[in-house]
Amino acid sequence: MSLDNGNEGAGAPADRLSILPDELLLHIFEAVGRNARRDLCNVSRVNKKYHRLSDAVLYKSILFDTPELHLTFSESLSRRPRRGSAIHEVKLSYPSSELSQLALDTPVHGSYLDPKRSNSISRTLSIMSNLEKLDISVPDMLLHGIGTLFNGPFDLACLKSCSLFYQCANDAYWDLRENIHIFAHPTLETLRIRRAKLDERGFDHIERPHETALKHLHLIECDINDDSLGDLLELPEALEEFVMTQVEEPEPELEESSDNVGDYILALQSQAEFLETITIDHPTLTGRKALRMREFGALKTLRLNWDYQLFGKSSKKPRLHSVGLPPIMDTLEFFNELGSDAEVTDLLLATIEQKDIVARTWRTMIVVEGEDGVSKEIKAACKIAGLQLDIIGAMDEDSDAESD
């Protein structure tokens, strides 16, 4: 079907699409754009209405993989400022080599940010009033300038998801303090931070905001002080998911992080009544004492590296308290093999045997096979207690049954 401006008097075919509501036209244009953006660009030239609706699709999601593309688009916004409001998703991703000839002081029409403190990239982002998702992976020379975007006022009033990663020389950790006000953003629900560091100063009380909407926080290969993390986690109204990961041999060496998993559980205490999932995939963390998590009343899934992170390593001192599992925990997962500490193994076995008392809703335990496999005692205890044992990497269990 050909499209025109609907002028049937000139003998041209009628534009039957024009009678459809805008919402339906948007669905049609999205389908066209998925198959061929060039065709949608052609449709946008038919008339003003199609141009407006096509822009809403063409500029909904933008990838800036070179700074030149970003600046070209910034210049186009000065001519057509309404395009800024059409953008819902932006990804900035380019290496340091691309910035050698970038003019960061380029003026951006309509931005409220101070040109002396911000850069052209953050000023362009500031006029995207309907932006919902922001993914940043750029060199650290842009760290401070983009950080001013989060200092307020919050023109990004619709932002719901944000990922932050700044590329540093020698693969060093970037300073989260330069972007720390992202934690104060009122509408943000999902925040992913990669390879950042944060010292013990935390969030200054003088600048503490009201409660925020943050529900999902992922700290990927970060070097984060546990006390500062505790300060930041007082801000969300109801955090539902916490994920913290680190490699087996962090490089550079961690300077701000605690070496005790219990310190991070303590940092999560302010969100104990809301958290549904805790994942701490941090193999270098030890466990000096058994975790006490009875206050985590909403927690259904707990994932750790080692059994001793939950029960605490063996010591010469007598144990004065036992592990306190979350009251409605459904799934417990260990990313590494069981059995590296004999006392801990005995405690795990006793906990399984007392499942109906210590964790009535506990249904599944996930472990890895390991070199020595999972002990027959653990398997038998799970079977008697009605606890489903999922062993990642295990062969067919029929061989074990035959050997019994």
UniProtKB/TrEMBL annotation:
InterPro entries: F-box-like_dom_sf (IPR036047), F-box_dom (IPR001810), LRR_dom_sf (IPR032675). It comes from the Eukaryota. Pfam families: F-box-like. Residues 18-64 form the F-box domain. This is F-box domain-containing protein. It comes from Decorospora gaudefroyi.
